[in-house]
Every structure is written in C-alpha cells, then in structure tokens.
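Batch manifest, entry 17 of 40.
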Amino acid sequence: MPDGVIYSHETVALDGETFTDCEFRNSRLVYAGGEPPEFRGCSFIGCDWRQDGAAARTLAYLRQVWSAGGKAQVQALIKDITAAR
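Output type: structure tokens
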C-alpha cells in the first residue's frame, strides 16, 4: 500500500498489507485471517474493526472455549496479547 494515505468512509481489506503513516477515518477495517497486516505510525478515528473468514471462525472458537469452561485459558490468551513487549 502507498504511504500516508487517508482512508475515509471506506472498507479496507487488511490481510497481508503494510500501512505506513496512514489515517483511517470512519472506515470498516476487515481482517479475514490471512497474513497479519502491519501498521506503522497509523491513526484510527471511529473505525469499525471486522473479522471475516478464518478470523471470524477463530473468534467463534474462542467463544466456544469460554462457554465450555475455558474462561481462564481465554483470559490468559488476552493477557498475553495485551502484555507490553
């Protein structure tokens, strides 16, 4: 993707893309479970983050684990995701 793009009121497919110094305004950002996107120096204003395909199935799986009694395991995963690195 080109650097420094302003996305406004758009649907943007994220899989496998690299975004540098971009601004996302009131856009729908869709990740379908492919190669994770890279964001470098980007800003996000009023965006709607969506998961599709494999990403949506992964979230459905984690909901099932939570409901089946795996709350601690899902919370540990969230803690790992949000840990400062």
